[in-house]
Model the fold of this input.
Amino acid sequence: MTDVAASAASPAAAPVGADAAPRRIAVLAGGVGGARFALGLREAAPDADVAIVANVGDDVWLAGVKVCPDLDSLLYALAGVGDTERGWGRAGESERVAAELTAYGVGWPWFTLGDLDLGTHLARTAMLRDGATLTEATARLSARWPLGARLLPVTDDEVPTHVVTDEGVLHFEEWWVRTRAQLPAHRFVQHGVERARITAEARAAIADADVVLVAPSNPVVSIGTILGVPGVRDALATTAAPVVGVSPIIGGRAVRGMAAACLAAIDVAPDALAVGLHHGARSAGGVLDGWLVADEDADAVPALEAAGIRAAAAPLWLTPGGPAAQVARDALALAARIR
Amino acid sequence: MTDVAASAASPAAAPVGADAAPRRIAVLAGGVGGARFALGLREAAPDADVAIVANVGDDVWLAGVKVCPDLDSLLYALAGVGDTERGWGRAGESERVAAELTAYGVGWPWFTLGDLDLGTHLARTAMLRDGATLTEATARLSARWPLGARLLPVTDDEVPTHVVTDEGVLHFEEWWVRTRAQLPAHRFVQHGVERARITAEARAAIADADVVLVAPSNPVVSIGTILGVPGVRDALATTAAPVVGVSPIIGGRAVRGMAAACLAAIDVAPDALAVGLHHGARSAGGVLDGWLVADEDADAVPALEAAGIRAAAAPLWLTPGGPAAQVARDALALAARIR
Done:
C-alpha cells in the first residue's frame, strides 16, 4: 500500500499493521467483484471468521425457481467450482434443461440457466418451499463445501431491484443481462424494501465484527441495495468496528460490470472520489471510516480525508488469480489505522 | 378379434365393423399402458379426434416443481421422444441436475429426475405459477409436437393418491418407485378428492364422444383414481357413446406395473373377469358397456356378458412397436357392436 494518506494522517491513526489480525470480519458484497475480493480476503486472513453480507436485490424467480445471482457467485467462487473464464456460473456447465424450456416457449432467451447452476436454484427453492429462510437455505447449500466464510443474505425478505427506463420498469436482471445496461436507467427501485429487515445474522455479523469491509462491488445496485435494507445503516453506524471500503472504480472506469450506467442514474460521477463521498463519512452520517482507492486515483485521497474518510491508495486490479489477497491486506491495513 | 361373444350376442348387437369409424374418441388412461394404447389408437383411427382423459393421481411436487408422470408418459410417447427401452422418461436422458440436488442433500434418491424431463416439469410449473390451469399448461406443452391427440388431465385440482401402509402414509410415487409396490398397501386415498371436479374439457370429451375407451392401465391407481374424481362417473353414465375397456390383466398377470398389489388392497382378484366386474356394467350403475379381454381369458366372456358387460377376447400384449393398433381396432370393433 502506498501510504499516500500518511501526510494527512489524523492524530488518532494507529500504526499500520501494529494491531493483532482481526478475528471477525464482516464484508458487504455483491457478486463477481465481491467473490474475487472474498477469495483474496480468505487468503489474506485465513484464520479469521469471515461473514459475507450479500446483496439479494438481483434475486429473481424464473420458471418457479429462486435464482440468487450474487449468493451463487460467492458460493461458487469460494467453493472453487466457478467458471473463472466466463466470470460467472459453474465450470463445466451445460444447458440441456434451458434448451427444453426454450423449446416449450418458456424461459428467457437472454438468461442463461445452466444445468449445474439450476441444481443450486432447485435445491434452494425446495428448501424455501419447505419453510426455510433464505439464510437457512444458504447455510445448507454452503455446507456442501468448506467455504472458509459464512454467506449471509442481507435480508430474508424479497427486495427485487427494479429499473425505471423509457421502455418501462424492468427487473434488474432483465435490464442488466438482456439490455447489457445499455437502456438508460432513470431510477432504481427496491421493490418492497419498506417491509424488509436486515436479518439477525447479518446484523450480528456487523455488530460483532472487528473490521467491516465493503467489497469493490457495484456501488449502486450491489452495495447501494444492501445499504437500502432497513437496519443495515443502523448496524454500520453502531458497530465498534471500523468500516473500510474498496473502490470499485479505478481511474474513472468501473472495473467490472456496468457501474457507470448505474452511477449516472443516481447522478454520481464514475470516479473513486465521488463514490467515496457518495457513501459518505461515518462520522457525518455516512457509512465509511476508510476508503481504499487505486494508485491511479491517489489524488483523491486528500479530498476524501478532508471529508472525514481515511483514505489510502493501492493497486486494486482484482484479476482472477491475481493480487486480490494484497488488496484485502491493504484494506485491513487501512482499517488497522482506524481501529 | 376372436368373436367369442358372438354366441352370447344380445339382440341389440350391431354387426362388427358395419358402422362408420368413430369421429370422436375419448380415452381414459394412465401412463405407460395408456401411452402404448394411445399410440395404437392413433394408428387404428388416424382421422379421429382423440381426447385422452389422463390420471393425475400420481402427480407430485418435487423440489418445488410439478411432476405429472402419466401426462408426461403420454406426451413423450405421442411426441415420439420417449425412452421406449426403459418404458418411461425421455430418450437420450441425462441427470446432471439431479446429481446436484443429491450433492446438496435435497431430492429423492429413489426418484430419477432427468434433465430433459425436468425441462417439461419446469415449463409446466412456470405456467401454473403464472396462473394457468393444468389443462392449459398441458395444452401449451403439447403444442410443441403434432401429437395427434388432445391430452386432458381429468381434473385441474390436486388429487394426490396416498397409500396407507404399515410404515405410514406415503405419496403414491414414493410407494410405487421407492418400494416398488412391495410394501403392502392397505388402502389408497385420493387426498382432496371431495373438493375436486372433472374439468369442463374432460366432461365435454366424454359427452361428445362417439366411443369412450378405457385403456389397459392400472385398474386401481390409474383408472380407479380417474373414476374417483367427482363428475367422471356421471359423465360416463350420461354419454350417448358406448364405454369399452381393455383389460390390463392377461391370464391372471398384470401386463405392466404392479396392478396385483393394488388390486389386493381393494380385495379384487387379479384377473380379467374380476376387474371387469369391479368396474361393473353401465346398465347396473358401473362404467362398462364392453370389456375386451385377452385370448387367454376367453373363458371369462360368458360371465361378463351375464353381468351385462358385452365382452370379446383378442390378443392384448401391448409390446412396444407391437400390435397395439390391432388391440385398438378390436376395442373399437367391440364398441361398434354396442352402438
